[in-house]
Task: inverse folding
């Protein structure tokens, strides 16, 4: 199963095995990674699953749709590598993915 | 048993309270009692992605089985509470078993209102609240024949969209003169009326449903006040929900359109809390009481209840927000729509009121009260910030399409 590493603001790392097909948000919630609220459960409606994707993985993580892009624009401290983790679907190509968590969810 | 925390209702509020108890460091026993036989799951997809068959059951679950073991949360599924005895601090389950509590959370939610019409107990009249309801409904989407939907609220309209996508003929009957009349203003209602009619829904506003014609225990037609009969293969009823407050009434708690709680989700009994769809709570921000049926309310108030039960005083003061997905349209609403008869209520529409993306900003005087964003998440998120900060907004500037939303902060 592809692995994801989530890194909290304080440096704490959480390495999680994620099934292909689930989102980076779902893998976090199911494995008790703190800092991803995901209030809407993955409907791209709340912008509370914001992560920063490690530069090496940015391209592989796929493109942002317009809806995601404009939600991120209003997230807490958005950066160029910001994504909504509910919109990144895990696959073998993303085995080893590293994402960092923001200080707050907006 | 000392310091046993018992939660009645394994929905989004009850589960969140259990999670927050553990996050707050409470390490005593926690029991979560659920009437259904499934692990706690999210309900919104039941009328959207799950109903469409685009989302598998395991993705609906809020937490995996392993979570409950690792967090030492005892799940009692398939269990219905029959009564609460406040004097002895016990609850009794159907079947007779008694569980004692030190603190109790009631999070039983709000099941659908039943249609009080003759013939409505037929086998092809459906309601939508549970996973099983959604599974049954999905089966009828595969059957030929018209589906009559009673009520043009979120549930009715979301199911209408899924049914149209599945190729079914759909008639929606709404008593009011517009759709979503309890949730949004005229502009947004108009938008959704056109959206559904554009997708081929036979939408009847101001419709009076008088009864059903049944054959062999099944509804074969819906009968309207003007005598028209609409032949159909199935009926979905989505006419709102009513709080499941019988336990609280019997226990003598204050109940008035939900269980009366304070801003920390506590009832007048210091050992009992209530959260989610069932609670009637004061909003410090708005200075009035609400009972809301929404996931964000269940999560935030569940959090407040969990933290406060763990001894960490917490106040629930989040802005209400809602979302709905219909066809390729996402509606996001934040804030509280002021009553239509509020003096000085007015709205500003950004965009073309007939075409998404657009947003509707509703004010009372110069105070922004709610924002409805249609395929325009930026307006939703910006509205959330502006309402929360009580920012005074220049109406002319907002109405000007050239104004960047960010410049309003």
Result:
């Amino acid at each position: 199963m592809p692995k994801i590493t989530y890194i909290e603001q304080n440096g704490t790392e959480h390495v999680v095995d994620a099934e292909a097909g689930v989102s980076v948000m779902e893998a976090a919630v199911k494995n008790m990674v703190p800092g991803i609220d995901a209030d809407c459960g993955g409907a791209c409606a709340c912008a509370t699953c914001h992560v920063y994707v490690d530069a090496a993985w940015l391209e592989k993580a796929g493109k942002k749709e317009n809806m995601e892009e404009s939600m991120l624009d209003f997230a807490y401290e958005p950066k160029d590598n910001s994504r909504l983790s509910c919109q990144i679907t895990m696959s073998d190509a993303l085995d080893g993915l590293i994402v960092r968590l923001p200080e707050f969810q907006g | 048993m000392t310091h046993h925390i018992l939660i009645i209702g394994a929905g989004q509020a009850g589960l969140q309270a259990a999670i927050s108890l553990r996050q707050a460091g409470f390490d005593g026993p926690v029991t979560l009692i659920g009437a259904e036989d499934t692990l706690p799951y999210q309900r919104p997809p039941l009328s959207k992605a799950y109903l469409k068959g685009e989302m598998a059951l395991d993705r609906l679950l809020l937490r995996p089985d392993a979570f409950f073991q690792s967090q030492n949360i005892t799940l009692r599924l398939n269990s219905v509470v029959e009564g609460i005895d406040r004097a002895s601090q016990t609850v009794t389950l159907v079947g007779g078993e008694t569980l004692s509590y030190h603190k109790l959370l009631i999070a039983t939610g709000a099941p659908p209102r039943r249609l009080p019409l003759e013939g409505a107990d037929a086998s092809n009249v459906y309601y939508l609240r549970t996973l099983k309801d959604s599974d049954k409904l999905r089966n009828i989407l595969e059957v030929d024949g018209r589906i009559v939907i009673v009520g043009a609220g979120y549930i009715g309209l979301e199911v209408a969209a899924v049914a149209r996508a599945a190729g079914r003929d759909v008639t929606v009957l709404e008593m009011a003169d517009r759709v979503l009349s309890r949730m949004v203003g005229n502009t947004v209602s108009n938008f959704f009326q056109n959206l559904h009619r554009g997708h081929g829904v036979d939408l009847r506003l101001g419709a009076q449903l008088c009864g059903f014609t049944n054959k062999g225990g099944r509804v074969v037609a819906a009968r309207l006040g003007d005598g028209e009969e609409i032949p159909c293969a199935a009926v979905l009823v989505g006419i709102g929900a009513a709080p499941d407050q019988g336990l609280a009434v019997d226990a003598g708690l204050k109940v008035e359109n939900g269980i009366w709680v304070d801003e920390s989700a506590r009832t007048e009994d210091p050992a009992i809390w209530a959260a989610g769809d069932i609670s009637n709570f004061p909003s410090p921000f708005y200075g009035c009481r609400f009972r809301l049926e929404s996931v964000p309310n269940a999560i935030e108030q569940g959090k407040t209840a969990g933290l406060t039960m763990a001894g960490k005083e917490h106040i629930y003061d989040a802005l209400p927000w809602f979302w709905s997905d219909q066809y390729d349209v996402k509606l996001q609403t934040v804030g509280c729509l002021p009553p239509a008869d509020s003096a000085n209520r007015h709205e500003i529409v950004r965009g073309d009121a007939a075409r998404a993306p657009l947003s509707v900003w509703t004010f009372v005087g110069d105070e922004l009260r709610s924002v409805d964003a249609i395929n325009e998440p930026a307006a939703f998120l910006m509205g959330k910030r502006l309402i929360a900060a009580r920012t005074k907004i220049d109406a002319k500037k907002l109405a000007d399409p050239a104004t960047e939303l960010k410049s309003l902060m």
